[in-house]
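Tokens as discussed.
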């Protein structure tokens, strides 16, 4: 009797994660895998190729060539060849990267615009990216360092809306980077190592190479998992707050001339955390702007500590106290 070797544990873990992400999709659907050629995305592509066939889902790989370094076209071509060998349709999209927000943000914006375009062309219901638990930990730590509040500490969600009719799925948020590399090795896949991932000019690279290892050395193992758990718990809290805001806001908000107004007594009756979230939510939904914590607290003082102070200039609008109403008006 011939002994049949068991499935490599790393391959099995990645496949399980992808299987769970694809489970809600209808048979006959199409998904796109964002494939850079690195170990994370290559392991994702291999698992998606296997699990999509079982689920009756069509999968295609899209590689975005940012053109930011010598040899990027060769790397994109190699990634596409891997995808075809796995049985996936492969597409390469070349993009122009701008400068808004710095090189990382600009490259990310160009990449997601390309993925949206390809998803639309393929009528894909989902785009899968290969963000891992390690990426999540780095995101949370960077958000903590920037002091940008609970929103950034929530990290990346397993599912977000990418475009109308298309969701962005991150199946590997519970999978370690070492596991994706082990899965590639087990399947004989040779990943491409992006030189930018070792460039200490980028804050994320410094966190990855220096900060997280130092924390592990000083505080013990499990830091990345703890940061990822923190992100998950904060997302749960945020979702609960969002439901509370949706329920509350219908009763306390009215349209006003050139803007919107909120009941001061109702705001005052709520805890500070909910009051601040309502203020930020009103400004974001009505004027498409985000408030800093300092700006939010200053607006809240019109509710809790009003001594007749005048209007407050905010991004895209002005906040002022008018009797028992807090009004937000366009500039």
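Sequence:
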């Amino acid at each position: 009797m011939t002994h049949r070797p068991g499935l490599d544990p790393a391959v099995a873990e990645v496949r399980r994660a992808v299987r769970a992400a694809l489970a809600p999709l209808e048979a006959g659907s199409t998904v796109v895998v964002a494939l850079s050629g690195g170990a994370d995305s290559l392991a994702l592509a291999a698992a998606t190729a296997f699990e999509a066939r079982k689920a009756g889902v069509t999968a295609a790989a899209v590689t975005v060539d940012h053109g930011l370094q010598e040899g990027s076209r060769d790397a994109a071509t190699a990634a596409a060849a891997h995808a075809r060998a796995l049985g996936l349709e492969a597409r390469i999209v070349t993009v122009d990267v701008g400068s808004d927000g710095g090189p990382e943000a600009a490259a990310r914006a160009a990449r997601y615009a390309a993925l949206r375009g390809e998803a639309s062309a393929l009528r894909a219901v989902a785009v899968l990216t290969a963000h891992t638990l390690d990426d999540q930990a780095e995101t949370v730590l960077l958000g903590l360092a920037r002091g940008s509040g609970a929103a950034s500490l929530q990290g990346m969600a397993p599912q977000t809306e990418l475009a109308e009719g298309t969701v962005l799925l991150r199946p590997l948020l519970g999978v370690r980077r070492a596991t994706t590399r082990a899965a590639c090795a087990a399947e004989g896949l040779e990943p491409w190592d992006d030189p930018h991932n070792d460039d200490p000019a980028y804050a994320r690279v410094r966190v990855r190479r220096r900060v997280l290892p130092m924390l592990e050395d000083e505080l013990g193992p499990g830091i990345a998992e703890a940061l990822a758990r923190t992100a998950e718990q904060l997302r749960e809290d945020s979702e609960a707050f969002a439901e509370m805001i949706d329920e509350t806001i219908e009763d306390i908000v009215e349209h006003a001339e050139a803007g919107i107004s909120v009941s001061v007594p109702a705001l005052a009756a709520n805890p500070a955390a909910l009051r601040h979230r309502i203020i930020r939510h009103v400004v974001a939904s009505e004027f498409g702007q985000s408030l800093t914590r300092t700006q939010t607290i200053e607006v809240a003082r019109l509710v809790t500590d009003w001594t007749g102070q005048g209007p407050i200039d905010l991004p895209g609008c002005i906040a002022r106290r008018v009797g028992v109403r807090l009004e937000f008006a366009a500039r």
